[in-house]
Amino acid sequence: MKNQTPYFLLLPMILLGLLFLLGIGNALVQSFGYIPAFDMMDFTLRYYEEILQKPVFIDSIRVSFVIALVSSVLAIVLGVLLCAVLVYTGNVRGKVLQIIKLPILIPHTIVALFIITILSQNGLLARIMYALGLLDTQGDFPTLLFSTNNVGIIIAYLWKEIPFVAYFVLALMASINTTLGEAAENLGASRLKTFFYITLPLCMPAIKKAFLIIFAFSFGAYEIPFLLGPTLPKALPVQAYVEYMHPDLRHRPYAMAMNSIMLLITLAMAVFYYWMVRKNIFQTGGDKDDI
Amino acid sequence: MRAVEELFGPHSRVMSVLFSSIGLSLVVAVLAAVVGTMTARALVFYDFMGKKFLSFGSVLPIIVPGTVFAMGIHVVFIRMGIADSIIGVILVHIIYALPYTINIMIDITSSLGDSLEVQAHVLGVAPRQAFSHVTFPLLLPGFMASISIGYIISFSQYFLTLMIGGGSVKTFAVMMVPFIQSGDRTISSAYALLFVLSTLAVFVVIEACIKKFAFWHHKKE
Fold it and tell me: Taking a contact as any Cβ pair under 8 Å apart, which residues of chain B between 86 and 125 contact chain A?
């Protein structure tokens, strides 16, 4: 009886997990053009070959990659900085923390609305700058939204992700700072040196995890590029959904091939991360949980 | 005024959608928290085959883009007859909330340990009572955090709901997005305000319920 307990406890999670794998597996199978419901019975790599030659698709993948990389790197740098400020000023709990948590509670769709209200050419910022005489006409305000520079999308992600990174790293950094950080300072190391040589390296596991999460999210999320992106080139998830909803059902394998490529890239990152963490365990002798 | 009419006018379905949407997300939140608690107990207290694989699998929904999963599962759900249904939407929402609830519950379960529960066993308390009287009250803060995060994930979910609900399951987020997309700032701001206020109100109610439960439990002891 005792041996069966874990399986009983895990049963609902395993069933839901199977459903999850079924969804992903189905997307993969369809990407090879095997959809019996539409009388498509061939197993072929044709769809991958075709989309990899289409400029529309190549542009999509490039755009998604750039958005994810730029927003994630900036969010990590600024988020860790914010976290360090919170730790060194002693604001690790209480009101300040509640304010940090607020952006995490607000969904991306509403963030998109904020960004439109503030950054569009007839938005708040343009009006304020015009009123202050900084702009000749409101039209001189740079187009940040619905444009190919994707600045609006990146700002929207930053607004969500900087507080997320800070919150994600906070507990670990606070505990390291009060133990090893203060020890180093007592031994005569300067604050800056302590931060870069002791605290930051020990926080790396959490920082890497945070990077993985936000990169995978901003690479594969639909809402923000759908609401703030240009007509062309569309971000990968948006382009995949366009193909999925194409009136000609034979377009579906294209959507699924795009999905598989997204899946491949995000999974490769996850596997790389776990491989890296594993190596780290041998090098520094501990993960976040051991400290 | 146009926004007030849209939200509260006599022909508006907004309020009824808001309440059914809150209900749906609460169901998702509680189920995700319960499954998260069960999974965490299994992963923390037991050793079994495939444990590493399962704990890696439990974080996958954070990494795999929702679009990939939603488009893949759509046909499966159509075949199972749960596409365009509340059941289908609840299932996919739970799947995307689970990594977070499992993570929270693992943290609190492993920090509590099982020594108190073992003590209760030794003193002759039945396992089920030991859990409900000793362990569960101590897990409450984590359980509440799980419910909150599950709620917010479900309530703000747009793409998954749109795909799986197929327009027949209308949630507040699904209703709000077309206004943001069309650039109607007045109405979409009103929606956004209602969204945030209702979320805060739900959180206050959840917290009050948990406090009441803890108090009641304490008195009973």
Answer: 91, 94-95, 98, 102
